[in-house]
Amino acid sequence: MTPEEFERERARSAEALRQVIEGASVPAAVRGSEEVLGPAEPVREESAEAPPEPVAWNPPPPPDLRPVNESWPAGPLRPAGGIASLLGGSREKAREAQVKFNSDQVQLDNALVSWTAEHFAATHGHYDSVIALMRKRMDDIDTRHRELERELIRHVHEMARRIDVVLGEGEKGRVSHEAALRSVRERLRAIEEKLG
After folding, report:
1. Cα–Cα–Cα angle for 34, 39, 42, nearest 5°?
2. What CA–CA distance (Å, rounded) separates 31 from 2?
3. Among the ranges 22-31, 44-53, 82-91, 115-124, which has the highest mean pLDDT value?
4. Cβ of 88: how many Cβ atoms within 10 Å?
5. Given phi > 0 = left and psi -120 to 50 = alpha, else beta, which region is 80?
6. How far apart are CA 131 and CA 64, in angstroms?
7. Do the beta carbons of residue 146 and residue 44 sit within 8 Å?
8. How far is it, in rounded angstroms, from Cα 131 to Cα 133?
9. Which of 69, 73, 61 is closest to 105 using CA atoms?
């Protein structure tokens, strides 16, 4: 490098250093958020409608036990055997009472089976609606998380760009300081040679 080229490089570095020093001494202007972060994304308003309520759990009422309970005593207990029981027709009445009780019991059993099936169907319908509602809420939460993730990535990229700018300015300052030191060394060497 010739002395003229060296002097031009030193002057260029000194000018860059002066600009950096002046830029650092001037208070930084407050930048708007849109300048730093880019244009603001529109805020998505939640709908004013309340979320749908799950289907109410309405199990069927249990079957009526009254007919079976009323027909349970199959008639008054009479002594078994004897001519009086045969003539009085008590066996026939007891048999009819037993038939009535058995009929009521079968009807109750059928009603219990139907009631159990309807109860399970009502329970499953209620649970299915609750699970569907929770799935919709979870999908909304996942959507918001993805939006926040994109925003975070954008902020990290912006921060990395700012760090690169700061490091680049620091590198420029280091180069200009090294050039200034070389210049001072050369001048000191020239002065020593003149004095020596």
Report:
1. 120
2. 44
3. 115-124
4. 12
5. beta
6. 33
7. no
8. 5
9. 69
CA distance 35 to 28: 14
Question: pLDDT per residue over 87-109, tens digit each?
Answer: 556 678 878 888 888 888 898 89
User: Whole-angstrom Cα distance, residue 74 to residue 56?
Assistant: 42
pLDDT for 146 beyond 70: yes
Alpha-carbon distances, residue 160 vs 84, 93, 164 (angstroms): 110, 98, 6
Kindly report the pTM of this predicted structure.
0.39
SS3 124: helix
CA–CA distance, 79 with 142 (Å, rounded to integer) = 78
Q: Is residue 81 a contact partner of residue 41, using CB atoms and an 8 Å limit?
A: no
Compute the radius of gyration of the chain from its Cα atoms.
48
What are 182's two structure tokens? 């070389």
How far is the C-alpha of 180 from the C-alpha of 186, rounded, in Å?
Answer: 10
Say if CB 138 and CB 67 are below 8 A apart.
Answer: no
Q: Give the residue from 96, 106, 97, 102 showing the smallest Cα distance to 63.
A: 106
